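FAQ
Q: What does a multi-component entry look like?
A: The components come first, one per line:
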Amino acid sequence: MPYHKFKCSECIPEREKHAVIKGPGEDLTSCLPLGYLNTIPGTISERGCAYCGAKHVIGAPMKDVIHMSHGPVGCTYDTWQTKRYISDNDNFQLKYTYATDVKEKHIIFGAEKMLKQNIMEAFEAFPDIKRMSIYQTCATALIGDDIGAVAQEVMDEKPEVDIFVCNSPGFAGPSQSGGHHKINLAWLDQKVGTFEPEITSKYVINYVGDYNIQGDTEVMVDYFQRMGIQVLSCFTGNGSYDSLRGMHRAHLNVLECARSSEYICNELRVRYGIPRLDIEGFGFKPLGESLMKVAMFFGLEKEAQKLIDEETARWRPEFNWYAKRLQGIKVCLWPGGSKLWHWANVIHEEMGVEVVSVYTKFGHQGDMEKGVARCQEGALAIDDPNELEGIEAMKMMKPDVIFTGVRPGEVAKKMRVQYLNAHAYHNGPYKGFEGWVRFARDIYNAVYSPIHQLSGLDISKDEIPTDAGFMTRQMISDVKINKDEITPSEERPYTGDYDCVSKLRGKTYPGLSGPLSGAESEPFSDAV
Amino acid sequence: MEKIMAETMEDTLKDRVEQLVDYIMKWCLWQFHSRAWDREKQNEGVLTKTRQLLCEEPVELETPADRCYWVDAVILARDFKATYPWFATLDKTDIKVLMQGLKDRLDYLTITGSLNQELTDPKY
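Then the predicted structure of the entire assembly, as tokens:
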């Protein structure tokens, strides 16, 4: 087994089995790190907790809901507004955060009474909102507060409201992934099947495992609707509470992030017979083939081909402008879970960048299987790295840019390595055909930023050239470009709008004009 | 001489199986469901239908699950033919042998030889 031992972690021998180097001839039966295990004492993990995974990642993107944390105010504050999961209702779920503000006295005397008071106050403060999620935290779980009973009491008193209880305290798993698991199954057990949605198409899907980061979900939903497919619910980006209660009426679960939400798809398959189709929203080839697969399921190939042709014609040339300039760039692909495998191969194939390392903080071995299988030979794969290992890996692999989150990203910057925010994005959305150009543009802007070169000069000792002006990005990047080559006029830097999402809101789709009676009972019967 | 020819054919088959495995690993996700029983169903479902499509045999589309396997199979069969010119030289018997070799290898990599300790977890 090609395990890699970090020098900085020699004092934590258990860490050795959490990193591998993909050598020549290695495959998944010989090259796979351990994963999704309790953090080893002594290693300063960068993981989140199970409460954060449940609330911050999956629950809170639901847009028409009061998201209440039952616990100390710090839990809710630290999971508020750090991820850009926008929504089309003026970002209600991002604007406010709610906590019961549990203190020491409540630990001694109980906090259920105070919880009920908070629920009532929140509904009174926002009379238009009739849905609530309540998230358990470590403190209130340890004292045994029965949130479910309190929620039921409120629903009995106020029949117009509906409350979801998520019992995923911080300690309920090795990482945030434990929370993903718990909230998936809790939603299925408590809420799916309790609401009958309106069916407006013969072709109905749930779009699962996308959190509308800077509009990702809305871009994908636009594609589905242009093909005549009704997106019954989005789990959970820009998703509404009641639409997600109606998930049982879809014909197909289209799954984007298996890491965070395969559980609900698997159970919907077992309990309701709805099949699961895994897709990818990133990259021309994976996205095009994914849209085609969803379309083929319903017999809508022509609609899909038209869309793919239009989008490719519009965006491929602009993408090519960046791809030409990104060839050979070395990348550490250090995101959370699914982008590890969504991106590992396609950025190499379509942008020509070299993935020299992959890591995941909370991914399981299944994610690493996909990541290791998709990255190139020589790549270093790390599970749950600590900060020192990250630094050592950067010194060893010498990347030009890191795709990661804010915390490790800031560390990378201090080492003069550029970083792109893989979780919340810099200038997303990155999904969709246009989004893929925006991603390429952000990589280009990071790698060739003039500040990157200037920051390496020390004015106290380095000689500063005074006879030359600053270099622009293009002056730096175009050293690689063959000037004699004829470039098509469409091949140019990105010309899309600053905001490419808002205009999708309120669009009408001819194929989805009105309810179709009985559509759910005879799905796509003439589609084959 | 016959032995050498047989060995060469075996090497060619092995090499082609590895090319197809590499393609699936790089571009597909259906082989990586989270539990062993799902992976068995997925590999069987998608690769059986891929073989049928490549051999121009009828494909069963009775259930929603069948359609799900089928859409992955259609894309895979298309991509195989477009990516590997040697596919055009194969007859139906060759394709069946190749696809069986592919299925065996994929089952080994993703199920029987997998190091993923979660594959046998009895629950999702």
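Q: Is there any commentary attached?
A: Sometimes. For this entry: Residues 514-523 of chain A have pLDDT under 50 and may be disordered.
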